[in-house]
Protein: Metal-sulfur cluster assembly factor
Amino acid sequence: MSEESKYTEAQIEEIKTKILGALETVIDPELGIDIINLGLVYEISFEDNGFTEVKMTLTTMGCPLADVLTDQIHDALKEVDEVTEIKVNLVWYPAWTVDKMSRYARIALGIR
Structure:
């Protein structure tokens, strides 16, 4: 990253909030809950040039929905003007557990 940043720290946080909001529109087709509330997104990084990386996992390693969710993430992030390039990085550590879900997701799925 260059000395002179295109965005201030506050602007980057605002962009990350927009990215988070966009990702909340990505619904897991099997569970009917968005990937943020399911706790599938571990990290979002945004660089000055608009490159955005989403580190996420899936509920199971053999989940057949990886491509579907990746496509939905790309579509959702196209709505964020500052995002110019998107990389979805699937990671398996730490492994996803029900504990990563938000209270909302647990209530919606009837999990205590």
Remarks:
- The radius of gyration is 15 Å.
- Residues 9-23 form the longest helix (15 residues).
